[in-house]
Amino acid sequence: RTDGDRIxxxxxxxxxxxxxxxxxxxxxxGGLLLNGVSASIPPGEITCVIGPSGAGKTxxxxxxxGALSIDAGEVTIDGAxxxxxxxxxxxxxxxxxxxxxxxxxxxxxxxxxxxAVLAGExxxxxxxxxxxxxxxxxxxxxxxxxxxxxxxxxxxxRPHLSAGQVQRVMLARAxxxxxxxxxxxEPNSALDxxxxxxxxxxLAAARHRGAATMVISHRTGILGIADRLIVLHNGGVAxxxxxxxxxxxxxRGRQAATVVPLH
Length: 263
Prior knowledge:
Largest sheet: 6 strands, mixed
Order of helices and strands: EEEEEHEEHEHHHHEHEEEHH
Strand content: 15-25%
Mean pLDDT: 90
């Protein structure tokens, strides 16, 4: 496979094991957004990343998806450095729900599929995958109630969806194609209790099929489904490990109040 001037040997489809080793990211003004962060996101587990505003959570999510380059350290997927992967092929195996994002001009189906048909993919295969992703996100019935169902155009001037419903459609977009690595940045910020339940169910299903899942969240209700926790503070890892061990450590120290609200 040729990428620019480099010929890459094709690697097998990724299983999603993400490793960050001493990763640092600068802010362009001499400061550090991430400072020597090491973390592991294993397949078949849900890792929640928590911490105060400005701790580096969104930066970590962007690094994990490849949306942001690093200034130091190393990022690997299945043991291979990110730059050793064919980037287009890798991108198709990563599902990403950014914190501040919205639906694009097009239909609901086009948004969920990331406009795959326009990129030349088979319409029948794409349609089946769109419906599957919507069902996984528990948003299929909601979409069917829209004026034109999956073919309803997205119109910012006349929105058919609430903020929470948009977030659930964006979850379907992240789940499209059964990605090996799933990165969700504040996926429950606009959800009601039904949406929270739908999210928890979708995450459990992704874990069951073996996806490596990273969830960034300020809302502690999502912690109940987490296998592992990473606590960020000032761009570094304050705690990392199995959920119950990290929560116990937070309760024992002052960081229970200063790093993350637990109640």
